[in-house]
Here is the input.
Amino acid sequence: MQSWYRTGTVKKLLLSNRNLVAIGIFSFSVLLLTRLDFLINDILYNFGLSFSEAWYQEYGILYFVAYQLIIFSLLAYTKNLKLFAFFQVFVLTSTQDLVYFCLWEGSFPSHEWVWMVYYRIFGFWNTTSQILLSLSSLSSIMILSRVDRIQVWIQASSIVKRLSRKDVKSL
Here is the structure.
């Protein structure tokens, strides 16, 4: 047991378990918050709720703050900046809207996504735009999180090459 602890195996195992717990908590939070969105956007509108910029601004801020509290709490729990960046990109690119439509509405809207900030910036935004943004952003974060491993592999391979050259010269 002591040799495991000394080699860091136990520490790595605990960190990987914390990462899995954090992913589970984040996934559950996305499900919960998108369901809350469904309650407002579908059920309450059917009972006569009318859109107002006044209540929507406060709701939007609270929604954003809820995600940030969850993400920063998970950062404090895992101390994993890569996971933190992935969660932030997920929220900041509004990938949770894709989850909302897929799980709770059952289909994606065929019209412009006028509620999105990207619609205000670009003058258009639709399902295809959102899917492209989400996939490209999340895959970029995943690739960047692997860069340090790639750099270590490159350094290790260059060391092996240098050592093999020395061995050949000594023969």
About this structure: The helical segments are 2-7, 9-46, 53-78, 81-92, 95-105, 117-122, 127-170.
